[in-house]
Amino acid sequence: METVPLSSANAPRLIDGKAIAAAVTEDVASRAAALAAKPGLAVVLVGEDPASAVYVRMKSEKAEALGFHSVQHSLPAETSQDELLAVVDALNADPAIHGILVQLPLPAHLDSAAVIAAIDPDKDVDGLSVINAGRLAVGDPNAIVPCTPLGSMTLIGTVHGTDLSGLNAVVIGRSRLVGLPMALLLAKANATVTIAHSRTKDLPGLCQNADILVAAVGRPEMVKGDWIKPGATVIDVGTSRVPDASRKSGQRLVGDVAFAEATHAGAITPVPGGVGPMTIAMLMRNTVEAAERKAR
Ligand SMILES: Nc1nc2c(c(=O)[nH]1)N[C@@H](CN(C=O)c1ccc(C(=O)N[C@@H](CCC(=O)O)C(=O)O)cc1)CN2
Known about the structure:
The protein is an alpha/beta fold.
């Protein structure tokens, strides 16, 4: 991946997640074509959450476009825990499936942790199982790493390269999906990492010390311009829909960062077109890797 110097001009450099994701998926397509059996990805959606339906469709369509065997299970919102576990069990046993993803969040009556735990860790292409989280924590190369942090690290790499020695990184958010694995990956790359959350004292002050700021809280435009250190690299993981009467749809997508105020950042991911496309690209990469491992 090309390393681009930090911007010295007034405007921050936009980190083009769409273009970088396209490069990742191009590589995935050629790896998939080299396999005797197509990589198989199963995506499971429970309920009718509109955003989840969009993401699941994007995943299935991308898998098809890359020549994968792509399977989608769309289950009603009232699906029971046992019914969902039975779907996961069947996918675990299916040799044509190398990756299983259960779209989150699940309806409130379902136990997400138990569902994730039921996925074969070698097919857990979301990297959410305790086994894969543990593998990542101890630096096991067999870890399947959650897609959004993996994609975010690739974006950071286009600015700073792979060695983040001497850089302070602040991750706002401590979820299993993004914040915690992100912090581990940054630490593995030699950054000095702080995990911040809703109980953190003086969050703006902490962020002002961050050379790399990762916002993953899901609160629209929470990170204000004066929280950002001049020249910092800002990775915006948030994707919230807010009302916007000027749009035909009546809404627009915003991140966790007040983008228009981040004029003095060195580099920043836009929303849309930043981290989001990388999440899908890394899911495809995790799936082809799972298929390659199976073929060895
Ligand atoms: N099982 C999982 N559930 C969820 C994950 C996940 O990684 N695994 N992540 C998020 C949502 N997500 C993927 O599922 C996701 C979010 C956003 C995008 C994306 O490409 N966004 C576009 C905008 C798309 C739009 O118009 O809505 C962008 O940012 O450019 C992809 C995937 C929660 N659940």
